[in-house]
């Protein structure tokens, strides 16, 4: 970095040395820069920068000389980055909710067939990738105790899978800044794996297509292929058969997520699952109703709620209390995935009992919104997703 800065300063100096004799009637003027264009380099916003313009009259002609040192610096820095290749990348790793989840049968391989509307939401982790000089091992760190950092982590599995499929030999230092709770039914680990595959492909010059990444990812997790959709998809099979939907849910539709400290074991939930106890609703009918008329309580079916409520009876109580406390704020209240997150769609605010009742003092609470992405771009973190509630802040806001 020091070498790059020195090179830039030298090139700037040589490109902009004092010009020959300046006319006597030269006038200098400081003008604000025009707003940055969408593609302008990060850190080069117009705020706090000036364009120095010198103007003078020579005969009958007026000459104006403009110099924008920040733009010149960014242009040279971009060129150096291009020549050096990518060395660092920070990516948002969003989670998902299952707006409805039907279990339609048991497969010969022991898995279950499902039909579900998956949708990405604005709550997510941040993952920082840096190229490592090692040619034999990735190094993963995280801000949360208890998250594995060895090869059992889906991030490392995804990077190993990418190297196996492409023959590349990039290894990484990775830091996972985790905000999505584990054991929540939100697909946080699956999203991390998809994000790692996307990152590895960027470092390798995008030699694999998005379709390749989606197909490969199904080898290490059923929910991972979904994240290579545009953010809203009808998923079948084990979850790996992904069909983008053309009219996703409104991105300005708020929701609140509530997760008790206890996690739901997916294996334990499926162990208690009984196919004869599932809903009879046709999943394609549910999909049509949601995409045409929006979310309502009747269409947010989750066949895993009964077994999850057996595994964690307090989760059933939490859902009942949210519904009982609802004063028209939520159009639907449902469990996501195999639990243990309860979602209330329609308001970003939790019901008051969450911060008034000592039984719920340790419940994780966050607002969220639906999110999609553009083709050939990864998900971007919305500003609102940074607003995970702190219980003390909630109490203070109620007191005010």
Q: How would you sum up this structure, described in words?
A:
The structure is a single chain. This protein has helices at 2-15, 69-84, 154-166, 188-203, 210-217, 266-271, 283-293, 305-311, 313-325, 353-356, 391-399; strands at residues 27-32, 50-58, 61-67, 88-106, 112-132, 139-142, 171-177, 232-236, 241-244, 254-259, 332-335, 342-345, 364-369. The protein is α+β, with helices and mostly antiparallel strands. The strands form 3 sheets. Strands 4, 5, 6, 7, 8 and 9 form a 6-stranded mixed beta sheet that branches. It is globular. The model is unreliable at 1-57 and 389-400 (pLDDT under 50).
List the helices and strands and how they pair.
Blueprint: H1 2-15, E1 27-32, E2 50-58, E3 61-67, H2 69-84, E4 88-106, E5 112-132, E6 139-142, H3 154-166, E7 171-177, H4 188-203, H5 210-217, E8 232-236, E9 241-244, E10 254-259, H6 266-271, H7 283-293, H8 305-311, H9 313-325, E11 332-335, E12 342-345, H10 353-356, E13 364-369, H11 391-399
Parallel strand pairs: 6-7
Antiparallel strand pairs: 1-2, 2-3, 4-5, 5-7, 5-8, 8-9, 10-12, 10-13, 11-12
């Amino acid at each position: 970095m020091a070498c790059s800065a020195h090179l830039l300063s030298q090139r700037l100096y040589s490109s902009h040395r004092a010009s020959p004799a300046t006319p006597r009637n030269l006038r200098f003027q400081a003008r604000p820069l025009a707003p940055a264009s969408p593609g302008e380099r990060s850190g080069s916003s117009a705020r706090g920068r000036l364009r120095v313009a010198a103007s003078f009259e020579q005969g009958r002609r007026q000459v104006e000389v403009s110099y924008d040192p920040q733009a010149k610096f960014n242009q040279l820095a971009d060129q150096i980055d291009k020549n050096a290749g990518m060395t660092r990348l920070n990516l948002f790793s969003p989670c998902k909710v299952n707006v409805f989840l039907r279990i339609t049968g048991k497969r010969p391989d022991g898995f279950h067939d499902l039909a579900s509307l998956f949708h990405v939401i604005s709550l997510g982790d941040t993952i920082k990738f840096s190229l490592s000089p090692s040619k034999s091992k990735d190094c993963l760190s995280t801000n949360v105790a208890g998250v594995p950092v060895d090869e059992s982590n889906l991030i490392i599995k995804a990077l190993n899978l990418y190297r196996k499929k492409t023959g590349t030999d990039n290894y990484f230092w990775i830091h996972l800044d985790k905000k999505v709770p584990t054991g929540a039914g939100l697909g946080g680990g699956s999203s991390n794996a998809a994000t790692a595959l996307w990152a590895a492909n960027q470092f390798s010059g995008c030699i694999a297509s998005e379709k390749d990444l989606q197909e490969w990812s199904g080898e290490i997790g059923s929910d991972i292929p979904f994240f290579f959709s545009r953010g809203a998809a009808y998923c079948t099979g084990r979850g790996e058969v992904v069909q983008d939907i053309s009219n996703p849910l409104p991105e300005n539709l708020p929701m609140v997520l509530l997760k008790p400290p206890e996690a739901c074991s997916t294996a334990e939930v499926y162990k208690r699952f009984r196919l004869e106890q599932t809903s009879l609703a046709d999943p394609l009918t549910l999909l049509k109703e949601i995409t045409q008329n929006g979310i309502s309580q009747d269409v947010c079916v989750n066949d895993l709620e009964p077994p999850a409520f057996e595994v964690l009876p307090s989760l059933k109580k939490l859902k009942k209390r949210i519904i009982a406390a609802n004063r028209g704020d939520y159009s639907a209240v449902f469990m996501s995935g195999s639990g243990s997150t309860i979602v209330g769609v329609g308001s970003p605010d939790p019901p008051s009992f969450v911060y008034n009742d000592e039984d719920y003092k340790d419940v994780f609470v966050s607002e969220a919104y639906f999110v999609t992405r553009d083709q050939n771009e990864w998900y971007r973190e919305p500003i609102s997703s940074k607003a995970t509630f702190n219980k003390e802040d909630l109490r203070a806001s109620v007191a005010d």
